[in-house]
Batch of 2 targets.
Target 1
Amino acid sequence: MLAIVDSGGANIASVRFALERLGVRSELTADPAVIRAAEHVILPGVGSAVEGMKRLQAKGLVDCVRGLTQPVLGVCLGMQLLFDNSEEGPTETLGLVPGTVALLPASPDITVPHMGWNTILTAREDGLLAGLGPDARFYFVHSYAAPVNAFTVASCDHGTPFTAIVQRNNFTGVQFHPERSGAAGARLLKNFVEGRG
Amino acid sequence: MLARRIIPCLDVRDGQVVKGRQFRDHEVVGDIIELAQCYRDEGADELVFYDITASSDGRTVSTEWVTRVARVLDIPFCVAGGIRSLDGARQILHGGADKISLNSPALENPALITELATEFGSQCVVVGIDSRQEAGDYFVKQYTGDPNKTQPTRWRTIDWAREAQKLGAGEVVLNCMNQDGMRQGYDLTQLKLVRAELGIPLVASGGAGRIAHFHDVFRLAGVDGALAASVFHKGIIKIPALKEQLIADGISIRP
């Protein structure tokens, strides 16, 4: 069973529907016991880092998520929360990956939020990207981004380079929305649930 | 490199997709789910659903069809129409929409933009602006879903666009009303003016008639996305052919 952490974020339905299209059974839950027992866990989230952390705290899920040992996939804000802290707020986040999430700088040619389909640059081979070529595009929509570091699997560039996919131990995060990234996103989610990530 | 977006817009009335000319004389063009699937398969980058009657009738879109759309679509979509409160927005976002677009309600209560951006993040708060050229300037119109209820506002388009960004909007969709349904091309002058004022993404709307119009709006007005309705609904422009041409022209486009 795959557990989607019900942190009250807004993109929960679309993640659930994407899994449904892949034939993967998922349960939306805020119950730590159910989350701990799941084979896979997805941490979704849209909104601000402060609100996201508040929601996890209010549901008593901070230690639960930190202590998970099965594969965990953070999506968008869910990915940003894996890092140490965020300048959005600012707020301390889960501390599972080193680094500080910061606002993307805007310039005349670079609009923020970074909104739309972009390509990614693979930093190291990973099963999560199995079957996906360098031309694959994913749907991004965010104003804050994580720096590129030793745990970066793939980066993206929007005026400045940032981490598009991060992985440390059993925790993986994607800044884009695989549930809204067409066939490429569906393949990535499939790779995750089939244990390639 | 970030791709410029091609965005079919589906005007929804009473659960069906309709299209008018300069916001008048609506005719039914098809079923929401069928059209959504068709555009996804053709390579649309995003879809916008406007419930064009919601604002002027004082009601909010039903979330039932939002969820039906979210189930079948694997590309992002935005819902607009009479969203007046945090709860109304939450219902639509929780129903599976990626973004919500505010038009008349943002003019009635500008603080709503900030409220929604704080709760859900700027990235899912779009402000739609219906703009008409009058006496050498551009002005914002309200309640354009029904021509009998359309009203002027106190805002110049450029000022309202700037204000919307300041209040927390993550994107502006500029509907150039003089061009709507005319297929004579986007209002490049107006779009360029607004583009220069904003740091957030700008989507052009109103006037697409030929593939060259998309080329021009990306190259000459520098917009992030181009929205169109009738040319797609009536098959005058096919998205695969459009994208092929834009790619050949060297514009960053998702194939």
Note: The longest strand of chain A covers residues 160-168.
Target 2
Amino acid sequence: MTKEPALRIVESQVRPGRLAGKVALISGAAQGLGAVEAVLFAQEGAKVVVGDIADDLAAGVAAEIVRSGGDARCVHLDVTREDDWSRAVATAEQEFGALHVLVNNAGVAQVPSSIPDLPRAEWDRVLGINLTGMLLGTQAAMPALARAGGGSIINTSSVAGLVASKAVAYGAAKGGIRLMSKATALHGAKENIRCNSIHPGPMDTNFDGVYRNETTLVGTLARIPLGRLARPIEVAYGALYLASDESSFVTGTELIIDGGVTAI
Amino acid sequence: MRRLDGKVALVSGGARGIGAAAARLLAGEGAAVVVSDVLDDEGETVARTISESGGRARFVRLDVTSEADWQRAVDVARETFGSLSVLFSNVGINNGPKPVVDVSLAEWNHVLTVNLTGMFLGARATIPAMRAAGGGSIINTCSVSGLVASGSPAYGASKGGVRQLTKAIAKQYAADNIRCNCVCPGPTDTAAIRAFNVTDDQLTGKAATTMLGRLARPAEVAAAVVFLASDESSFVTGSELVVDGGVTAL
């Protein structure tokens, strides 16, 4: 969960939002980065379907958006379940009339392990949620995006999808996301569906923090030229850019938001 | 509140194409813009158009290979608008596709000097002003030719150099809160691309190299520049923002 205060929808937009008229589905949107993205997208005028397995938290995010003058629904979404994905996409189309943006954000961290000791079940779990989950989301969303006349898919990868990670299953999943995004860009281009991956560096969320302690934090910060962790909002702004029509010529690429980690 | 309120941006190569589009968009988002170029009349027109539509802009002549010109541009930014927080280093020339063995040393040197040394000089001249401003953002125009093979060896080498110069700046000045990234456009509908692709067939061929099947509009590249110039990208440094319609994903 983000440590910064919850974002508020800015009182009556002076200008139309950057996502005005768009409907976005975000997986893993009950907390952390996904929740910040949901609120930011709503603030910029999107109607948001908040998907997560944490139903109460997801309902809270949707309620906060509605309370602040935005429009949102929450759906139970286990990204490994095709029927959940179908229902999430149907919710967007039935409640809001269309689907224009999919943010495949849900993911899990891997239990730290050497490669020989990594249980097969853990490998399958991480790949199943982090990579196959995004494929299932893409499969469910693409026909809806095509019906909407085009759209944008944003897959949340990581710097672990670009350079070595000690977490072999996590890195393999995130690397797979990078190339799956390029394939999706290739398949989607003729229907004006763009697809890109975002690659956050170490972030100040519970997700990243669960395996982080004071000692490892020092080492982590030393690898970041900007010398600090990312705030979730800094990653959410990257997703906003890719979701908006401002990025209409951006497809099949990586948006790296890592404070310079992979540049050095 | 606009996305660049309070920022002062210097745009090199701002008279035409991507630079002109970026100057207009930066100003539209609230930045004061110093438009610079060697094309005085066209550069003046861009600055005047911005001013007439309610933005803040001023033109200054800038040959990117001249240290004195860079210093004057920085001085103009500080004297006119009080500080300098954004540099969009955008000037580039292309000598056209050519086999390596046919590239003269003179043209090699010319392309490298304008495209790469020009960006080095721009960063060198602006970094002290950004430090004084408490931080800033440098955006260098790279190209897909800085990522994959180019028909022009000199152009490709210069853009590959821009990519690595960008990372060096990002590393060295992160502690000063100065970010540095490059934007890598694919084929973009500007006078520059039309210089080497004069027929419709040639332009269609260029468009066909992209997944999206068309050329970029200059405003689409400019929107990426706005993102990198703004505080929205405050954790983005040392990276490439590729705006290529999928060219390099293939």
Note: The radius of gyration of chain B is 17 Å.
